Structure formats: C-alpha cells, structure tokens
Write the structure tokens for this entry.
Amino acid sequence: MAEPKAGFYIHVPFIEHLGIRIVEKGDGVVTLRFDPRAEFANSWGSVHGGALMTLLDVALDSAGRSLDDKCNGALTVEIKVNFIAAANGPVLAEGRAQRAGRSLIFSEGELRSEDGSLLAKATGTFKLLYPKSEN
C-alpha cells in the first residue's frame, strides 16, 4: 500500500483534511505536527479544542500502532484530555505507548507550542485492528 502524503500508512481523510503530519515515528513514540488554518479557530481566535483533541487522539493511537507492524488501525476506547493553555499557532503532539495487552494499548501524550509551552495532556485506551484473514 502506498504511504499517504501525511506519513500515515492508512488513509484517513479527516486527518488529511486537518493537515496533521508525522514528524517522527519510533518504537512506541510518535511526534506529530499540526499547522492550524483559520477555519480551525474557536470564537476567541485560538485553535478549537475539538481539533486539538483529534490531534491527541491520533498521536496516542499512532504510538500504540507503532508497536505492531501487522496492525492496520485502532479504535479509541476512551480518551481523557486536560487543556492547560490556548493554542495560537503550530502545535506539536507527542504520543507514547505505555502498556500493550493482547489487543488494547494504553497511551499518554501531550501538546506543546513551537516554543515548548505545554498546552494539553492526555491518556487513552485503544483497540488495535488487524486485517481480516483470507480463507
């Protein structure tokens, strides 16, 4: 399968629409970049929390998926986000897989501005998905 332009190995139109890109991907750790456009602003002019939650969701999910190259997706079972400061420009997300079970991954992560200021923290649980076996 060809790698989509954002650096993800699966095609997710919503992620491509947001413009989220992989900066670095290692064994259980993923760094993403989000350069928000004007249409992603809230009524106060900062980045909408829904876009930031999506960024965290993708970072935590991708960190978990990076542990198993046979995995071709993941479903969010639960995610908790604590917003700490408003985002007013580009955002970097780091996701770190903490514990892997048979089919569930537990991840944590954070959002930071380009200057390193902490914007949000998150934890989540994700169910790994695998291709259906051909009979």
Confidence is low (pLDDT under 50) at residues 1-6. Strands lie at 21-25, 29-34, 73-83, 91-100, 104-113, 118-129. The chain is about 15% helix and 40% strand. The longest strand covers residues 118-129.
